[in-house]
Predict the structure.
Amino acid sequence: MLSSTNTSARLPPSLGDFTLNASFNASLSAGHDAAAHRPVAAVKGIRKYYELGGEKRWILRGVDFHVQPGECVILSGPSGSGKSTLLSILGCLLTPDGGELIIDGRAVEKLPPAQQALIRRDLIGFIFQRFQLIRGLSAEENVALPLALQGLPAAEAKRRAGELLARVGLGDHRRAIPTRMSPGQCQRVALARAVITNPKLILADEPTAALDSHAGAEAMNLLRALVKDSGAAAVVVTHDPRILEYADRQCHIENGLLQ
Amino acid sequence: MLWQVAIRTLLADRGKLLAGLLGVAFSVLLVNLQGGLFLGLIGKASLLVHQGNADIWVGHREMHNVDFPHDIPRRWLPRIRAAQGVLAAEPITIGFSEIALPTGGFEGVTVFGVEPHSEIAPPWEIIEGHADALDHPHAVVVDQYDQEKLIHPAIGELREIGGVRARIMGKTRGMHGFLVTPYVFTTTDRAAQYTGKPSAHCSYFLVRVAPGADVEETCAAIRQRLPEAEVMPSEEYASVSINYWMTRTGLGISFGAAALLGLLVGLVMVGQTLYAMVLDRLTEFATLKAIGATEREILIVLLGQAAGIASIGIAVGLTAVMLLIAFYDSPQAPLEIPLSMMVVSSSGIFLMCTFASMLPYMRVRRVDAHSVLQS
Ligand SMILES: Nc1ncnc2c1ncn2[C@@H]1O[C@H](COP(=O)(O)OP(=O)(O)O)[C@@H](O)[C@H]1O
Ligand SMILES: [Mg+2]
């Protein structure tokens, strides 16, 4: 279980306006560099195929990849190159057909599903292209859900969710349901949900693809700030060139191999 | 918070929710209606046994239905009376005959003869005619319910039963059994005449045990003195009589099958409602998985939803059953729904509903979160 220290408590108040200054980010990154010996997540020789009409189609043919704490890696590549597949393997949503997956020092690819669920719950935060918020729940409840799954009482989970929503500029939208919010607002709720448990690894699959350029930039600014602040590692899948500037490192995947 | 997910997801699709609720309510109504009709009908099969004051019935070897006795000799009576624990014993006569109708036709009847001023035989409530109706010569008593079958006999009217004079002297209420033939109540002597039995014969002896005496021990004492007779406590003979109809007719099976169908309706409706809801929201369940919900937690959500639909549906169904009991009244098909039946059927349907959540659970288990969350 992660420490229950609140992510939002350590966010600067100015985050609500998205005017994060570079020096603040830099100072945080520097602070984490010392602790960054061990990768948060690493894959070695990962292979994955899909069966199509009885025929194996290898999507990943031995991918080596790792991401350090506080690092924001952008994974790019042509459509259909296996970016999402690799991300799902990193997130324990998909079992590889070969190779190793190590998260926070633990080999996880052979763990039973229930254990993998606990790893997702405690160590990983997901952000999806289509936000994937629970339609029936309010913004606050959506953000509180991962904390509640960790066993926090609902009232406390919602209180923290409310604080975090205020920090991402959605203080007025705590009770709003996802269908009443703009795509940009939904993605900010999804970002808050991904980081509320202070995960060590944040996985984002095309987080800006469903947003206009302004909302996309806002979301990326916010993601980057949240990642840098918490010292988490982030892997962001994208083929949006405008996002590249947010990367510490860029990896390109093509023909099943990392270039 | 899981229960919030469960409730909100349910409420988000009112149409499906309503279908599920109606299914459960209908299921409760159907099961209780079938069960109630069954109990009402089968209760008639033991009417004569249940109505009397007798503690023990003595009859012919292998007696199996109160309405179909085989003759036994009246001279057994002193031996029964002498048995340890017997307070009183009386003969009764039951047999078939025909009553002549004023229209020229005949109607089959079950003649039921008791000793004059019997303390043991089934008492009947005379609602028309004389309280001591049977004291009159040729007197018989019929049930008000059989008015039409007997072509509206008037009090004092003379008829013939089995070719022997019979005068209608009273009418009872609620004395109609499982058979379609009307009961005609009279004395044992006249019953023998109407049914053409030798007057030295009767059908059963009804026995009351002395205060403090044990029924089973008294039965044993009678059996010892009368090894050729069948001796049963009343309760046992009632269930033997009921069992006769259950096993020799398709009654048990047909009512049982209908009640079972009612249960299945509930199962299918809840299962299908939850399944359709889950199919609609596979991405949300995949999201729950992605953010770390275990399969157990997802099962809890689905079980909670099933239990919620079941509880509300059962409440609605039971309300309908209560209304039915309050407003339904038919002597042909009496409805007997004891509290225990409502409790048992509701629990059964509740269990069925929670079981029904397994189907959508299997679907959610199989969901490929990776693919679903891409779109
Ligand atoms: N569940 C699946 N079954 C079969 N083929 C799949 C499945 N998921 C992805 N694919 C195929 O694998 C390839 C890589 O998919 P994906 O990892 O989503 O690529 P990217 O995210 O880089 O566009 C695509 O050609 C896709 O059609
Ligand atoms: Mg993709």
